[in-house]
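Continuing the series of single-chain predictions for the mutant panel. This is the parent chain; the variants come on the following pages.
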Amino acid sequence: MTTPAEATEAAHHAGHHGYISDKDRYLARLRRIEGQARGIHRMVEEEKYCIDILTQVSALTSALRGVALGLLDDHMKHCVVDAAQIGGDEAEAKMKEASDAIARLVRS
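Parent structure:
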């Protein structure tokens, strides 16, 4: 019989992450972000006005931050909650992961 911790670990390794239900939405957002990055590249190549380029860089940064916050929210709602219900080392590890991810986002 599989323990809850083993089930969570198996799901983690099988690729069942919290964002999976929104995978298509994330992929669409990332495609738009790729397009924005290419647009900025093109603006530099074409020597567009620096403030216009900076405006686009700001929009790209905001879009990436939105993806990051969505992924963090999904991680907290799924991976961290599941681990917290199990408790022990798994819960501690997931809480540390989330805390470290938040710290990285705050620094950026």
